[in-house]
Amino acid sequence: MAFSDMINKFFGKDQVANSKDVAKERLRLVLVHDRANALPEDVLLALREEMIKVITKYMDIDEGALDVGLTKSDTEIALVANIPVVRIKRNVG
Amino acid sequence: MGEVLVITSGKGGVGKTTSTANIGTGLAMLGKQVVMVDTDIGLRNLDVVLGLENRIVYDIVDVVRGNCRLKQALIKDKRFENMFLLPAAQTKDKTSVTEEHMKALAEQLKAEFDYVIIDCPAGIEHGFKNAIAGADHAIVVTTPEVSAVRDADRIIGLLEASGLESPKLIINRIRTKMVQAGDMMAVDDMMEILAVDLLGIVPDDDTIVISTNRGEPAVTDEDSKAGQAYRNITRRIIGEEVPLMSLEEKQGFLDKLKTLFGSK
Ligand SMILES: Nc1ncnc2c1ncn2[C@@H]1O[C@H](COP(=O)(O)OP(=O)(O)O)[C@@H](O)[C@H]1O
Ligand SMILES: [Mg+2]
Questions:
Q1: What ipTM did this prediction achieve?
Q2: What is the pTM of this model?
Q3: Nearest residue of chain A to residue B180 (CA atoms)
Q4: Which CATH architecture best describes the domain B3-260?
């Protein structure tokens, strides 16, 4: 144990995260949730359009069945896309 | 033509009224023509913070209803003759003020004053929309707490959506000892998350309470740290470059020992 760790232990500052680090992480997460909820519909639509543009350079997809959205859990928020592939192009690029 | 600044926050009790009083007075101390407008109808308290509560005859609702002329409702400050207050109504119906009224009022006031400082009520409803309606720029006040910063983020989004681009942030009630101990978010932590411009930082300071008791904003007190913070903020508002003040405090023996052994 390094000497500074001993001092930390002595002062009760062990491995427990500082409360400010806890605050910061909770804040980051709550803002991801808040901003996701406040995201205008057209932003997701624009994202969807651009994704289609990029993906169709490499493969044919079923655009009608394409599903893009945010899923939330307690600890993270993820952008999830389900994109059925119809055909992969040969010799791309 | 003057500038209309709205002081807002979302969350209540973080220091909007305190900031309005100190910024308004600070600008008056720099020789500017200043009027402060209290839009917290029903919960008026800017008058008390400024020590002008005994002089009120008419209020903002009287003005928009045409019960009096605008000039009649403006209260001149005790110390600074270039500083005025347009008080909120305490008992009248707050729905009688509309966004159109506020736009017209802002136009009228900025024709006469260098700075029109609008103290906004808490929340994001009617009162908030009124307060920002005639504003040219917005200042968002927060404290170093998760709930306050969260509300600040929401407010920043709403301000930008209503065309008030790049609001500026004041972080109020910073407790340096707690920041040093890792128990309060530091300025950088909040700036990283909010990504807006910082207008200033204000320490949590007993002189704010004392000066509010007296009805004399701390910015007039040479020895007040919070007063110094607000003097810096007003100078930034008029376009001067002023470095952020250091909120370092004298360290106690234990703190020194901990710093010495690099355990913080
Ligand atoms: N920097 C500070 N240090 C100490 N007390 C403060 C500070 N800023 C505000 N306060 C106190 O916090 C309380 C709420 O402030 P106020 O300005 O009325 O908030 P708001 O207008 O946002 O509701 C008041 O009692 C005020 O004196
Ligand atoms: Mg207030």
A1: 0.81
A2: 0.86
A3: A20
A4: 3-Layer(aba) Sandwich (3.40)
